[in-house]
Amino acid sequence: MKTIISFLKDLQKNNNKEWFDANRDRYQESKEHMLFFTELLIQEIHKIDPEIPLLSPKDCLFRIFRDVRFSNDKTPYKTHMGSFIARGGRKSKRAGYYVHIEPGNSFLGGGIWCPEPPELKAIRSEIFEHPEDFKDIIEAPGFKKYFPEIQGEKLKTAPKGFPKDFEEIELLRPKSYAFGFQVNDQKVLGEDFVGLIVDAFQELARVNQYLNASLDKN
C-alpha cells in the first residue's frame, strides 16, 4: 500500500500528462500492487460469499484515466485507485464489494450504487414484502459497527407504486442500497488492513446476498 499511497499523493500535486508520462513506471508499479491486492481480496471474498467467483483482478480495477468530455474538471487522472468485486466485475449490476484507496480519503464499502430502475424496483419490492429480514441484517450490531446507515440520496416521499403509509417507508426511499466507511492512511498502511477488510466484508456479505437474491427473484 505504501507504493500506491506515495504515488497517489504525488499525483494529487501533479495531475497533468507531462508529470504522469515522466512517472509512468511508478504508475505501472502502483497498478500492479493494486492488482495483486485485488486478487488477494477476491480470494478472501470468495470464501465469505460463494456468489463471487475467482475473478480476474483486471476486471475489477477501475481505470485511472478520467473521462473529461462532459466535466468542468479537466484534470486527466483520478487521484485514487478502486476495485469493485462482484459477479461480472466492475461493470456488474449486482451487489458487490468496493475498496477505494486515496490519500486521506480511503474507504471500504459495497452494496449497489445507483441501480437502474428495474434493479431498484426489485430491491424495494423485496424489502416491502419482507422488511424484517432486511432490518435484521442492517440493524445487527456487527453490521452497524462498520455500516451505520444506507448511503446516498433518498426520495422525500414514497417511491412510485408503493403505499405512502407503509410502516417501514424509510427503507424504500434510498436511491442506492450502498454502505461504506472511511479508513485513515494509518490503517491502510498498517499490517492488519486485510484483516479489517475481511471483518467488514463478512458483515457486508449478508446484505449483498439479500440484495442479489432480490434481483434473482424479479
UniProtKB/TrEMBL annotation:
InterPro entries assigned: CHP02453, UCP028451
Origin: domain of life: Bacteria
Pfam family, one: DUF2461
PANTHER family reported for this sequence: CHROMOSOME 12, WHOLE GENOME SHOTGUN SEQUENCE, DUF2461 DOMAIN-CONTAINING PROTEIN
Stated name of the protein: TIGR02453 family protein
Source organism per UniProt: Sunxiuqinia elliptica
